[in-house]
Amino acid sequence: MITKESPLEGMNIGTVATVAIRELPGLHTIDLRVAPGTPTQALVAGVLGMDLLAKPGRILGSLDEAHARQALCLAPDWWLLVGFPKADQSLTRLKDQHHFSIVDVSGQRTTIELEGPKVRDVLAHLWEQDLREKSFPIGAVSQGLMAKAPVILCHVAPFRYRVMVRSSFALHLWKALADAAEEWV
User: Any bridge partners for residue 15, and if so which?
Assistant: First the structure.
């Protein structure tokens, strides 16, 4: 497991009464590529203790805790595993007999969490996709650009979203989010 430094040093602004923005540094993430519907996918899912049969754009696993185990389905054969610190060791043993890819990408991104009743108003300044519950319900995940930074956006609870951003864009995105939230923080 790669120990990474926080690009935002645990920054935190606002309050959940309106909108709070905070970094969740150090989330362990693994990039997993495995062919869907294959025995290999079933074997990998067994090792993880999680069914990997979701549609792209969905999050599997616990959404409540900051360091919960989650599998973000980004494409039919592409998963971003969050909070599985021992999975890369267990899965590496299977790679000799099975075809799939795992890469520890913990050092690539940091996570910014936004929470509060004004969170959609803040995100609407920077995100083009519809964030209403009907279009982007709890448990949804999407990729796109936010303030010209490539991000992964997750809806994890009522009025709570997580934005996973590459470390090199983190400060830029933080400033854009803080600017968008200025009237509420």
Answer: 19
pTM: 0.91
Query: 3-state secondary structure string, the chain?
Result: CCCCCCCCCCCEEEECCCEEEEEECCCCEEEEECCCCCHHHHHHHHHHCCCCCCCCCEEEECCCCCCCCEEEEEECCEEEEECCCCHHHHHHCCCCCCCCEEEECCCCEEEEEEECCCHHHHHHCCCCCCCCCCCCCCCEEEEEEECCEEEEEEEEECCEEEEEEEHHHHHHHHHHHHHHCCCCC
**What's the CATH number where 174 sits?**
3.30.1360.120
Q: Is residue 3 part of a domain?
A: no
Residue at 1 is within a domain:
no
Whether 101 and 118 map to the same domain: the answer is no
**In terms of residue numbers, what domain contains 151?**
10-27+107-185
Sole residue written with tokens 């790669």: 2
- 8 Å CB contact between 62 and 138: no
Nearest CA among 123, 170, 139 for reference residue 27: 170
Tens of pLDDT, residues 122-143: 999 999 999 999 999 999 999 9
Q: Are 170 and 8 in contact (CB under 8 A)?
A: yes
Domain termination site, one of 105, 136, 156: 105
Q: How many domains does the chain have?
A: 2
